[in-house]
Amino acid sequence: MRISVIGCGYLGAVHAAGMASLGHDVVGIDVDAAKVERLKAGHAPFYEPGFEDLLREQLASGRLRFSTDPSAAHGALVHFVAVGTPQRDESGAADLTAVRAAVAALAPRLRPGDLVVGKSTVPVGTARELLDRLRVVAPGASLAWNPEFLREGFAVGDTLTPDRLVLGVRGGTPEETAIGQRDAALLDEVYATILATGTPRLVMDLETAELVKTAANAFLATKISFINAMSELCEATGADVTRLADAIGHDARIGRRFLGAGLGFGGGCLPKDIRAFRARAEDLGVGEALGFLGEVDAINLRRRTHVVDLAEQLTGGLVGRRVAVLGLAFKPSSDDVRDSPALAVVAELTARGAIVRGYDPEAGANALRVLPELDLAATAFDAARDAEVVIVATEWAEFRDLDPAASGLRELVANPSVIDARNCLDRDAWTAAGWNVVALGRGSHRAVTRSGTGVPAA
Ligand code: UDX
């Protein structure tokens, strides 16, 4: 089948290559000429394990091409819209400019029977608005909503072997229902290979499909903030949040995943999506229903300040003190620094007068774009040299696997103090190697808070 994918960012580029690998004839279209050139040459514009291999393989097969020209969409039967919906302003609402522009650019190229399929994360009601527009500018074309749940770092796997396929289609009147059924059948054809493996397929109305995505992200963010709130309780009482998470996680109704306490969530999705979801609920007159997401956001942001407070307590004042921050990406296996908790910590440490050196295995260049003043080290050891406190802010395997005894890191630092802001280090091994380890939500810094000595409370 001939397919176009409008928007070749994270979501669109991986989707385009993924669809080509299913045997479709795909064109990816983006307004950013530099990005399109990179993709054409088989270079991923972002770090994503497995993506570059897939991209090259599909370019070589002849089934995948990229263009900046919107007319390249002409002739395709299914048109995926995968452009960004960033946070608009302080209100938190989503900026739909790119989505509306993509549909407007597509409209004159659509033929009757063509299907536009939204993949972008949008406020509920957007699909209906776009469909109403299409009825005027491209009668005979239809629209469906097919949200995407891919995680950075697992984008290829999540695209080709998703947990579920959600298809939002038209319905209501018999005529609309018939169109919706036809649209769902077309999407079944697109995803035939994936469906053949038994992937659950859920067909619903457009509004529910839009909500599925925002609800899923809101739930995930809530789960993380819940465990981080428990962290605060643990720190006040000397309890251990990792043992707590293990124990409650054994209840299948709760589950252990996404109960990783630490520096909290960041990235291009969860923070902006919960804010946009709240803003949309306010517009709809049901703001109270999502009031709790304000608390979820606040708990999350408190983690960042808390880590800086801990560094301040450990150093006895940050002005002129050397701090190493290991990990700058918002999560491991990614070079993405959008709303990165690690970068927020760097910025706050710097604002309080610390001399910060940062290191990340992949995200260094992107971090410099956001914080041009950042002193970027080439290795973790470089960053740690003469540091009075080391903060592990992203749980890259490279840091988790550091042998605290054999690595020689202790000899490099001015003071062997480490804040494990992701609960990823083997605390006993680090303590045995002579480090003062402060792990978030694991009791130990109750003493730091009270006496500043770092000695665990009795
Ligand atoms: C997320 C959703 O998982 C995905 O389904 C959606 O399509 C897009 O948003 P992503 O932003 O790639 O994906 O990252 P994810 O792996 O979900 O992590 C989000 C943030 O939460 C990261 O900053 C991560 O460090 C943090 N996190 C995750 C925790 O703090 N604790 C956890 O237990 C899990």
In the CATH hierarchy, the third-tier topology of the largest domain is known as Rossmann fold
Radius of gyration: 24 Å
Number of domains: 2
Average pLDDT taken over every residue: 95
Which band does the percent of strand residues land in?
5-15%
Q: What is the CATH architecture annotation of the largest domain?
A: 3-Layer(aba) Sandwich
Query: What is the C-level CATH assignment of the largest domain?
Result: Alpha Beta
Distance between the termini: 67 Å
| Helix proportion range | 40-55%
CATH homologous superfamily heading of the largest domain: NAD(P)-binding Rossmann-like Domain
Q: How many beta-strand segments?
A: 14
Order of strands across the main sheet: 3-2-1-4-5-6
Ligands in the structure? uridine-5'-diphosphate-xylopyranose
Low-confidence runs of at least 5 consecutive residues: 446-458
Shape: globular
Largest sheet: 6 strands, parallel
Overview of this protein structure:
This protein is an alpha/beta fold. It folds into two domains: 2-204, 3-Layer(aba) Sandwich (Rossmann fold), CATH 3.40.50.720; 206-457, Rossmann fold, CATH 3.40.50. It has 19 helices and 14 strands. It has helices at residues 10-21, 33-40, 51-61, 97-106, 126-137, 155-160, 174-190, 192-195, 206-237, 241-249, 270-283, 292-315, 341-351, 364-370, 380-384, 397-400, 409-412, 427-432, 445-451, and strands spanning 2-6, 25-29, 64-67, 78-81, 115-118, 142-145, 165-169, 201-205, 322-326, 355-359, 375-376, 389-392, 417-420, 436-439. Strands 3-2-1-4-5-6 form a six-stranded parallel sheet, with helices on both faces. Helix 1 (10-21) packs across helix 3. The radius of gyration is 24 Å and the shape is globular. The protein starts with a strand and ends in a 7-residue tail after the last helix. The relative contact order is 0.09. Mean pLDDT is 95; it is low at 446-458. The protein binds uridine-5'-diphosphate-xylopyranose. Uridine-5'-diphosphate-xylopyranose binds at residues 149-152, 217, 220, 224, 258-260, 262, 264-267, 269-270, 330-331. NAD(+) binds at residues 30, 35, 85, 121, 152, 272, 338. It catalyses: UDP-alpha-D-glucose + 2 NAD(+) + H2O = UDP-alpha-D-glucuronate + 2 NADH + 3 H(+).
